[in-house]
Amino acid sequence: MINAEVRDKRFRIFFIAISCFALIILSRYALLMLKPSPSPVGPDLVLPEAARGPILDKNGNLLAVQTQLYSVSLWRPDLTDPQGSAELLARVLGLEEDSLRALLTNERGSNFVWIKRQVSPAESKDLEALMQGGRLKGIRLEPEPGRHYPQKSLASHVVGYVGTDNVGLDGIEYTLNDILSPTLIGEDSPTYGNRVYLTVDINVQNRVETILKRAYEEYQPDNMMAIVMEAKTGDIAAYLSLPQFDPNHFQDYSAAQRKNQLAQMAYEPGSVFKIFSLSSFLELGGITPDVSYDTTGGFNPDYFQKYDIAPITDLGNYGVLDLQGVLNHSSNVGTAYASETVETKEYYAMLRSFGFGKSTGLPLPGESNGLLKEPEQWSLRSKPTISIGQEVGVSALQMVTAATVFANGGVLLKPHIIKKIESPEGELIKEYDREVVREVLSPETAKTMLEMMRGIVDSPVGTTRRARIDDFPISAKSGTAQITNLETGKYYPDRFTASVLALFPTEDPQLIVYIVLKNPRGDIYYGGTIGSPLVKEIARDLAPYYHIPLIGNEVYETDGRVTLTQPRSPEPSDIIPDFTGMSKREALRFFADGRAGVTMKGEGRVIFQFPRAGMPLQENQIIFLEFE
Amino acid sequence: MPLKDLLKKGSKSRRFSIMGYDFVLILTVIMLTVIGILFIYSSGITSLGKNVSNEYIKQILWGVTGIILMFVISFFDYRRIKLVSLYIYLAFVFLLLVTFLFGSVVNGARSWLGIGSLGIQPSEFSKIATIIFLASYLEDNSKDIEAFRVFAGSCLIVGIPAALILIQPDLGTTLVFFPILIAALFTAGADMRYLGFLFLIVILTGIFTMFYAWDLYLSDNFIVLGRIFSDRQVMIPFLAGIGILIFLAGLGLIIYRKQIFFWIAYFWSGVLVSYGITLGAFKVLKGYQLMRLVVFLNPQVDPRGAGWNIIQSVTAVGSGGISGKGFLAGTQSHYRFLPQQSTDFIFSIFAEESGFLGTVVLFILFSLIIIRGLYIVYTAKDRFGALISAGIVGMISFHIIENIGMAIGIMPITGIPLLFLSYGGSSLWTAFISIGIMLSIHQKRYRD
Fold first, then answer.
1. Domain match, A450 and A587 both
2. Residue A366 lies in domain
3. Which of A13, A43, A108 is opposite residue B49, by nearest beta carbon?
């Protein structure tokens, strides 16, 4: 053994060394464990700033926008006063106090619990104040991105909606989710999604909704659809499916209310379909406008009698009809005779060429292909039946798209619901312009059909005569189709799909309007009777908005003159004033009493108004004002 | 001193005496083992409050057998081991070699040897084998204890198993051999100059490694000095400069016989050796090991990778507060934020659930082991016993300091168990065997 002195010295060295280590460890203990923890230790939910891109209308009005709302969560380990907290939370958040107390006092429950997600700004402000006062320990406010739809139900079937985690569930929010979503989370810098501009114009949408909702209440159909399309571009300006829903609270609505009928529902179009059939027969050379058919006795050829097939009949006996007559009376018999002039396969190819039997490819979820059977599956009765719009399923989108053929000299356009997509920095990523799909008709055939459809409106016996506006040429065809009872496979005797398709002005159509009412209640169910006045109202409202000259509108002009000569001078407010040069604020004063509505376009001062100044104000009249 | 007389009197007989037992030590290690089992149970609890692990049952088994083993060993006369110490040592070197060649890989290191589900980590037991053989070697060479030959021999004895463990690679266990060597040499009375040199190398190598690894992995901007390890254009003049310095100092020492020249040469030689070891370490060690080694300096550099363990562990310890969250109520562990929570980071769970007061109790228990261990070194009857005890104290101290130090973020993460607490049969048995040997040494302290 080494000597005692050295041994003791070495022991002292070792002891000091080990004591130093001990002291370091002890002081580190104290530093770590005795210092009061400044913030609750829980799973941190710090996300980088990120925002889903907005959805805007054609003119940049917001339809969907990112919001930052707070969600209230519980971090149980920090909860000190469950009773008091439950009472306060119930009061501020408007929740059931008993169930909240049960949640807060349940010590075996999960440590992290959402109490209420996405509370209103007022609620989160109140909670914040309480927290700063040192109450509500263990309750936290987590910022969560939300989605707000400032236009509420307007065009809601196009826009769609998102779930709680800001993932698109329907409409454009769903189909363009990847484009709208912010790019990869995980970077420190804030990320934003792209902006999507729709072709929908909320001014047009608003007008159409106002007009159609009135009809919706009057006729109480199962559902109702309307599309307004800009004829030269294929841009959908208004897209309405009734009943509708508010995407801010989409959970409160049934699936039926949220269903996008226009794209997803296939139905028998009825007589409107005759314009596609007859123009096909014209194009194929089977008929000319000068044909004449004796419609007496219905369409009952030999092979119908041989196989005991029910004859095709009309509502009345219209006698001998030429093509215009067939259209005016919407004669099934005449159309059926005309169908005899073409080959089945050629007719089928024409219908495919119009786009039937295939979805239009709009970026909306669940678009229907419609139902157009292959010619091999056609029965003897199929050709005449399809030609009058039965035994064929279409979607409203297909109908309105096919109508672009007439407005574009025989050329089919691709429909658009998206105008353009911009990056968060405002750079244009993609823009959708007029897209030609194929030539379907010769320009002559297209023009002939347009003129004949105008003839229906102008004819005193035409089914769409109620759409007539003097000196404003409208082409329109209506239809009334029976609805099939899905249980029996037969038609309901008393349920109809009433519809009308219109293009105007006839010389160079700018707009296509298509309106469908499924199963309107009441005595009136004819598409022409119900739909035509709606077309007229829409045309009258939208023509000035699209700068389509309304030459000498009879109703307004005569009334205007009468006003000046009326013995009893009307109240000043009963006459439409001259808005020219007014600001929006000044102009809006006139509409404060609610007797008249207003559609505004642009910013600045009024440069154009319709109807013009001095006209008498009619009930529920909408005045259009353009600002610059 | 009536008590001392009494003790002396009582131990005069050669027979085993119950009075010779160190009951404080026995009680302490049993208490620690029980605490360990309780918190291994806690580590198996998930956030749903269910126990998903049967590790605590295995630990009870190993604990009970370990305690029996401890008592059995304490009955033996430790001096008899000396005769076979060389063979035990060689056997374990062989086992380490076999492990390296055929062992199974757990957590990235080839450190397990076993058949079926039964496995042992030879590296754990080889520490005791090395301690015993080193003690035997130093006792046999006690006459020349200050000679360089003995110092070098000791380094070789420790170096062989340490190197075999390093290539597994298990850096933590390798490092345990340094305190064993230093403690044994220190107690044996080796020349302080050699010991100092060894210490200097350990410290400098540590600094160099940290420095270079910091430069490689943590630092935002390139430190120019880091280039002395990587850039040949800097390395060569640096090494040449040191070489010339040592040469001149040696010359000065011969000519002027001044002590100052010796210490200059001494220091710079240490620098040179440490430099060489550091370069070697960077060749042997893998990037992730180095990263883990230095990341404790700034865990936020890689909070989801290498820094994760430290951040979570420090968070767990810190969230314990004064009295802790209560047994089975820790959240860091039950949400599985902590990796290896039943083994390397058992202390974090303990601290989170028992708080500052609990850790102080644990600290006192470990201090008792070390103090009793030092007392046994001091009172050991012979050199062999004293050296074994010193090696064991060195080993246990390092385990405690390193494991707790890493859990509270002041030591690099090297992954060695907290003796008696951490889950694991090999380490628990190693600990109990060590205590058993110490008890035997204590028991025989007054033997004639």
1. no
2. 206-417+428-545
3. A108
